[in-house]
């Protein structure tokens, strides 16, 4: 890696993706490594850095990585999802070029092809504040990334076969913390080390497939300071529910007796609780961790109430000098309301997950490429689901879902979950305001309960069973953007869609041109490149 100090700095990475044996739960599994690391290497960047990652696919199948939470301003070409990018063929490489424009915070990356995410290829991505932008807490002694997630011992090929046969994945075999589980036999190596009297920053991301996890430090409270790119009001928590696809940043002060302590991750909302532990060690400490393991909370209500304590820090500066609260989102008129209802259905005897009666299928030509090359009508239809879910779904259709959006509009999306399992929804290309999560069914009068002052601006939101969540988004980022379930069997079997925002004037001021080195596939392969946008 090296930097070029001309304009916004560049940081360069060369990644080699290979198979390798991993054993988070003690059972050998054919995992996916990046530069022989599991989890993969951290990307350590600063606001406005240009990030260049050359990915060599040494697997025997196509591979593609997405940069979860990175907004890719005007540049959905680098988003790394199958609706915008061709997967990297085996034995070849592709170089991502993206800028972490006007962002700070804790993020992650992971593969979107097949079921690769189940066995690795994921890691942390941090964006530090520029030196001239004040951070609302003192510099920490060190900065640590913790990737937590559920884990299946079957391997990604077997899991894909389960889904292709029309079944869901069922219950995970266990939980890992940075690809490990402490045995508690006194021989465990520490995940991280702390020096007494100092404060440390921990970035915690749930990179699992389907299970919400409760995370906690033994004997140490966590001060929540940032969430998915936003500084938060700094409350202390004994534990945090981290739903799939979410990232939190906390401060932990090493102010207890110098010895070893556990960090603990436990499944939430499952019939059988699974727990993983890791070791945090004090420098020069004496003694192992206490056998008194902190217990997770119980029930949905606790998690919902915790969500309601999360607040945007209105006076803190994020990526820019102006305070976060200077953006008065609560006073903007809503121009469109879209309600997305998730359902589980059988199609030809096989399980599919649908949104408003349509189950998404991946086309062989990325949607964005088809649109850019002027052959969208050969691949998909716009607006093929209604803005309100049908009252009764008599038949589920299988096709790509693309909603046409108006540039610079301000929309409301309602995620409705009438099922008995928790949902977790992510929006690429944007941060949205999570203004409400409530039990029951949404109706327009529920807007009276919205938080229109200090809802956290973030990219992933959970929806509890028989509940709904409301988000507000300013659509100022042209491109083709994925809205997806982070519950990965649901994502694989159809619970995702794309929104399309085209530049009204075909101008590079709104959206970048097709990169010269972009991979093409499907019906656009071999076609002449369309004329570039104007300046």
TrEMBL record:
InterPro entries: Cu-oxidase-like_N, Cu-oxidase_2nd, Cu-oxidase_C, Cu-oxidase_fam, Cupredoxin, CuRO_2_AO-like. The keyword Glycoprotein applies. Residues 17-131, 142-284, 368-505 form the Plastocyanin-like domain. Keywords: Glycoprotein. The keyword Glycoprotein applies. One of its GO terms (molecular function) is oxidoreductase activity. Pfam families: Cu-oxidase, Cu-oxidase_2, Cu-oxidase_3. PANTHER family: L-ASCORBATE OXIDASE HOMOLOG, MULTI-COPPER OXIDASE. Belongs to the multicopper oxidase family. This is L-ascorbate oxidase-like protein. It comes from Hibiscus syriacus. The lineage of its organism: Eukaryota, Viridiplantae, Streptophyta, Embryophyta, Tracheophyta.
């Amino acid at each position: 890696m090296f930097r070029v100090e001309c304009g916004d700095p560049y940081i360069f990475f060369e990644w080699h993706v290979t198979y390798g044996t991993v054993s988070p739960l003690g059972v050998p599994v054919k995992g996916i490594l990046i530069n022989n690391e599991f989890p993969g290497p951290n990307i350590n960047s600063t606001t406005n850095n240009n990030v260049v990652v050359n990915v060599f696919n040494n697997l025997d199948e196509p591979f593609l990585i997405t940069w979860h939470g990175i907004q890719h301003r005007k540049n959905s070409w680098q988003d790394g999802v199958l609706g915008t990018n061709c997967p990297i063929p085996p034995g070849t490489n592709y170089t991502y070029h993206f800028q972490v424009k006007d962002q700070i915070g804790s993020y992650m990356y992971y593969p979107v092809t097949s079921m690769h995410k189940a066995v690795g290829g994921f890691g942390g991505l941090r964006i530090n504040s520029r030196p001239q932008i004040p951070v609302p807490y003192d510099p920490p002694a060190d900065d640590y990334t913790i990737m937590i997630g559920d884990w299946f011992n079957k391997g990604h090929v077997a899991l894909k076969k389960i889904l292709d046969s029309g079944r869901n994945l069922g219950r995970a075999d266990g939980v890992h913390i940075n690809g490990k589980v402490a045995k508690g036999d006194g021989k465990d190596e520490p995940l991280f080390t702390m020096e007494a009297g100092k404060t440390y920053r921990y970035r915690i991301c749930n990179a699992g497939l389907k299970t919400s996890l409760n995370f906690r430090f033994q004997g140490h409270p966590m001060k929540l300071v940032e969430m998915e790119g936003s500084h938060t009001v700094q409350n202390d928590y004994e534990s945090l529910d981290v739903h799939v696809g979410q990232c939190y940043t906390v401060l932990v002060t090493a102010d207890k007796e110098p010895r070893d302590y556990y960090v603990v991750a436990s499944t939430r909302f499952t019939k059988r609780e699974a727990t993983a532990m890791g070791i945090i060690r004090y420098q020069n400490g004496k003694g192992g961790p206490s056998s008194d393991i902190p217990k997770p909370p119980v029930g949905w209500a606790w998690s919902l109430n915790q969500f309601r304590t999360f607040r945007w820090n209105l006076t803190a500066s994020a990526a820019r000098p102006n305070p976060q609260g200077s953006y008065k989102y609560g006073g903007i008129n809503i121009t469109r309301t879209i309600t997305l209802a998730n359902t589980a259905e059988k199609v030809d005897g096989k399980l599919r997950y649908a949104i408003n009666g349509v189950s998404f299928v991946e086309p062989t030509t990325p949607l964005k490429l088809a649109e850019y090359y002027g052959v969208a009508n050969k691949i998909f239809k716009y607006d093929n689901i209604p803005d309100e879910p049908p009252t009764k779904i008599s038949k589920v259709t299988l096709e790509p879902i693309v909603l046409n959006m108006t540039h610079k509009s301000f929309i409301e999306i309602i995620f409705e979950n009438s099922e008995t399992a928790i949902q977790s929804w992510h929006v690429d290309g944007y941060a949205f305001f999570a203004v409400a999560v409530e039990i029951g069914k949404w109706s327009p009068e529920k807007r009276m309960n919205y938080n229109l002052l200090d809802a956290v601006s973030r990219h992933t939101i959970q929806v509890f069973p028989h509940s709904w969540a409301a988000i507000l988004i300013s659509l100022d980022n042209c491109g083709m953007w994925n809205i997806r379930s982070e519950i990965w069997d649901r994502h694989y079997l159809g619970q995702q869609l794309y929104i399309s925002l085209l530049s009204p004037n075909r101008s590079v001021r709104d959206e970048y041109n097709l990169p010269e080195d972009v991979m093409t596939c499907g019906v656009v392969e071999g076609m002449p490149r369309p004329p570039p946008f104007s300046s």
